[in-house]
Specification:
The protein is an alpha/beta fold. The protein is about 50% helix and about 10% strand. It has helices at about 5, 15-25, 45-55, 75-80, 100-110, 135-145, 165-170, 180-190, 210-220, 230-240, 250-270, 275-290, 295-310, and strands at about 30-35, 90, 120-125, 150-160, 170-175. The longest helix is centred in the C-terminal third of the chain and has 21 residues, at about 250-270. It is globular and about 65 Å long.
């Protein structure tokens, strides 16, 4: 777990945290919470703040509800940071694995069978719940259907990914989204206050915080300056590197770059149907590549050829 991430002060979602804390105090907090929203906006941080509030209660240097900050001197902070708190079970995709497997859910059930520490709630936190496979989902479902005493489940879900409806139906959903001012604050936090220096190509409000995390990493790895890049020179840099399949930024965001590029062309040349047709074509091609596991590199090179007339 990243200490920096865990210690993030979620000023943007202060109202959400206050709501969850008040529900807990009034003993009205649902047993199963589902945090839904764009990846990277801070859902997991909110979950950790709620977890720290609950588990550090009555400790020295407990969670501060006035400022919504985690005190790094409280005992629970250090245990959670090292993933050894006896009342918290964290589930996420293992390194180099896409899915959360059934073995992790079996271990969770063993955790639930152990007596609670200091009579505080047992908390199961599932980061990336969309990565549950069918077997692990069905196994988890059985636990969610039980009326467990003093147990809280928090599932964090990327709104762009699918999740079994049977899991959703057992949860109380809370949707997270960034308002315009909060969006800019979040992006500035990621980019170290460089949002205003970005090309207008990257100021589309529909770009997620995750995109900017990936973009910053790509720029750092390729000696590019954020304030000097635009769509055209970024795409040309990607084509020059040629390492499409092994590049996280390209794999995660190339279709998004295509959309931004073609929408920009459409806005500039309103009477030209060429770019409308290309957008429709590459959208269908992307669906096919994803659905049928087709050659991603061929997809990238086809775009390069049709747009820049280069093989």
């Amino acid at each position: 777990m990243s200490e920096k991430f865990y210690n993030y002060k979620p000023v943007i979602f202060k109202d959400n945290i206050d709501l969850f804390i008040n529900l807990y105090v009034e003993k009205k907090l649902p047993q199963t919470l589902l945090f839904v929203g764009e990846k990277g906006i801070g859902k997991l941080s909110v979950a950790y703040h709620l977890v720290n509030y609950i588990l550090s209660k009555d400790e020295e240097n407990e969670y501060c509800t006035f400022t919504n900050t985690i005190n790094t001197d409280n005992k629970s902070y250090n245990l959670i940071s090292n993933n050894i708190h006896p009342n918290l079970f964290l589930i996420s995709s293992k390194e180099n694995k896409k899915n959360i497997d059934i073995e992790q859910i079996k271990n969770m059930k063993n955790f639930l069978n152990i007596t609670s520490f200091n009579k505080k709630p047992k908390i199961v936190l599932i980061d990336g719940s969309e990565n549950l496979n069918l077997s692990s989902s069905n196994s988890l479902l059985k636990s969610l259907e039980e009326n467990l005493n003093n147990v809280i489940f928090i599932l964090v879900h990327d709104i762009k990914k699918k999740m079994l409806n049977t899991i959703k139906s057992r949860c109380i959903q809370f949707k997270f989204f960034l308002k315009n001012d909060d969006y800019e604050k979040k992006i500035n936090e990621i980019l170290d206050n460089q949002f205003n220096h970005l090309s207008s190509d990257f100021k589309d409000k529909y770009l997620s915080p995750l995109f900017f995390m990936d973009l910053l990493e790509y720029c750092n790895n390729n000696n590019l300056q954020l304030n000097e890049i635009n769509l055209d020179n970024l795409l040309l840099n990607i084509f020059e590197k040629k390492n499409f399949v092994k590049n996280k930024f390209v794999l995660n965001n190339f279709f998004l770059l295509i959309q931004l590029f073609l929408h920009k062309k459409i806005a500039k040349e309103r009477n030209n149907n060429k770019y409308f047709d290309l957008l429709k074509y590459f959208t269908q091609r992307f669906d096919d590549v994803t659905k049928f596991n087709l050659d991603f590199e061929a997809y990238v090179l086809e775009f390069k050829y049709l747009i820049y007339n280069e093989k």
